[in-house]
Write a structure and sequence with these properties.
heterodimer; A: 394 residues; alpha/beta; Aspartate Aminotransferase, domain 2; 2 domains; 7-stranded mixed β-sheet; 3-stranded antiparallel β-sheet; B: alpha+beta; Sufe protein. Chain: A
Chain lengths: 394, 142
């Protein structure tokens, strides 16, 4: 049975070119780039090149890129240190209700440290309510963090405007771009971004590596202590193979981006059209056009997501209910509840996240599989029974 | 959750659920759980004049464990007396399924509650008292 992997937002396979680029830095050029002897030169040069490559993808400077262990660390660092940086000015930060848990739970942690957090809501398509955001700004607000694109529903936020608003009030603006980077064009200067989080494994790079962009002039305090790496801002031995692999994947993703967006958008829209046409009682979650090229999230009434996933897994189609990070929890997704999906409908939601390698044939197979799985699960569902009987009576 | 955490028995009862459907004019029917929490279980019983469960069917909205628990529970009550059915606990359902992941234990509890709710309906309809049976507390409109 062919494996159709449609969970690329959870993680993507490493690109072969990235793996090849990484290989020399495990055994041959393994030395610590922070060492003084000459064996450290190769790894140090590789890091320098990787930093420059990544900076160029964002219209940033190499010294504005700080390597981390991934998106979660970048988010934690930006939020905690970003809030502490201007603590004397104020202890109020603003985030959206549909952030990733790496932001939501870090904000909860900041509350314990005595900060105040305002969560701004989104509309039914997942776009932040700009008027609410503006109203939430106070004289003591020092940081706004809104994700570039949502991991579950794929909605892309008006980042440029949010950054503009933040700067008008002298507030730092951070964006979690973990799902967006490598998939849609980003420019830190044009989009008014002060800090931006990225994870390597979401666009064909390796796991365990990421970076935080920090605009020059922002003296963001270190989060990891114990070494002079990353210009004294992020301690810990540099993950040279990871950095090199991530840079290679970033280079490829940006080289092919325009073509990938066209191709993936066509396949995504074909998927959306077929689902809407062929499966009754469904609802597309997120914005129809302002969404990631590879993301489609649907709720199917009268069925429960996990059982749907299990049925699909048996047919060789691998997808998620929403966020793999939250799959240990029984609560419906905060993102779907945030855009107003009722509890019972939110339970029956599945996210398809494609890659540039996903084909039209694979998506057609997936739609057929989803169609038959939804029908089977509905035949088991007392809710569907009740609904059908109720409508016959009317 | 990924299906790797489920036992082969759970996978089997999920893939080929036994006794799916409804019984027309059932001796008792019970619905428990609520859609907000993500699980609803409905069990139908056909009980003969000697108090033996002749047939049992179910419909379930829920995760893989909920479907498998319903399927297993219906298998276990079939052919049993009302009193024997009362003795089928969530623990027994779980053991019969070779265990459930910790966060899914409530699914087996729901199966026990669904049987009890159907038996309660039967006892109310026939004006009989079943030893140890209490009015079901779970309500789908919760």
């Amino acid at each position: 049975m062919e494996k159709i992997y449609l969970d690329n937002a959870a993680t993507s396979p490493l690109k072969k070119e990235a793996l090849e680029a990484m290989m020399p830095y495990f055994i041959e050029d393994f030395a610590n780039p922070a060492s003084i002897h000459t064996m450290s030169r190769g790894p140090r040069a590789a890091m320098k090149e990787a930093r420059a490559t990544i900076a160029s993808t964002l219209d940033a400077e190499p010294e504005e890129i700080f390597f981390t262990s991934g998106g979660t660390e970048s988010d934690n660092w930006a939020l905690v240190s970003g809030a502490q940086l201007n603590e004397k000015k104020g202890k109020h930060i603003i985030i959206s209700t549909i952030e990733h848990h790496a932001i939501l739970e870090t904000a909860d942690y900041l509350k314990k440290l005595g900060f105040e957090v305002t969560k701004v809501g989104v509309d039914s398509e997942g776009l932040i309510r700009m008027d609410e955001l503006e109203k939430a700004i106070r004289p003591d607000t020092t940081l706004i963090s809104v994700m570039t694109a949502n991991n579950e529903i794929g909605t892309i936020q008006p980042i440029t405007q949010i950054g503009e608003l933040a700067h008008k009030h002298g507030i730092l603006f951070h964006t979690d771009a973990v799902q967006a980077y490598g998939h849609i064009p980003l420019n830190v200067k044009k989009m008014n971004i002060d800090m931006l989080s990225v994870s390597g494994h979401k666009f064909g790079g390796p796991k365990g590596i990421g970076f935080l962009y920090v605009k020059k002039g922002i003296r963001l305090p270190p989060f990891m202590h114990g070494g002079e790496q990353e210009n004294g801002r992020r301690a810990g031995t540099s993950n040279v193979p990871g950095i090199v692999g991530m840079a290679k994947a970033a280079e490829i993703a940006h080289r092919d981006m325009a073509d990938n967006i066209l191709k993936m958008t066509e396949i995504r829209d074909h998927y959306i059209q077929r689902i809407e046409k062929e499966i009754p009682y469904c609802r597309l979650n997120g914005h129809r056009t302002k969404r990631l090229p590879g993301n489609a999230n649907f709720s199917f009434e009268f069925v429960e997501g996990e059982s749907l996933l299990m049925s699909l897994g048996m047919k060789g189609v691998y997808i998620s209910t929403g966020s793999a990070c939250a799959s240990g929890s029984l609560d419906p997704s905060h993102v779907l509840l945030g855009i107003g999906v009722p509890h019972e409908v939110a339970h029956g939601s599945i996210r398809v996240s494609m890659s540039e390698d996903t084909t039209m044939e694979q998506i057609d197979y997936a739609v057929d599989a989803i169609k038959s799985a939804v029908a089977t699960m509905r035949s088991l569902s007392p809710l569907y029974d009740d609904y059908v009987k109720h409508h016959k009576e009317e | 959750m990924y299906d790797g955490e489920y036992s082969d028995k759970v996978i089997d009862h999920f893939t080929n659920p036994r006794n799916v459907g409804e019984i027309e004019n059932p001796s008792g029917v019970g619905t428990v759980g609520n859609a907000k929490c993500g699980d609803i279980m409905r069990i139908y019983l056909d009980i003969d004049e000697n108090g033996i469960i002749r047939d049992c069917k179910f419909k379930t909205f829920g995760c893989g464990a909920a479907v498998a628990s319903s399927s297993m529970a219906t298998e276990m009550v079939k052919g049993k007396s009302v009193q024997e059915a009362m003795a089928i606990t969530n623990k027994a359902v779980m053991e019969a399924l070779d265990g459930l992941p910790v966060i899914k234990i409530h699914c087996s509890l729901l199966a026990e509650e669904a049987i009890h709710a159907a038996l309660w309906d039967y006892s109310q309809k026939n004006g009989i008292v079943i030893e140890g049976l209490k009015e079901p507390k779970a309500d789908i409109n919760d």
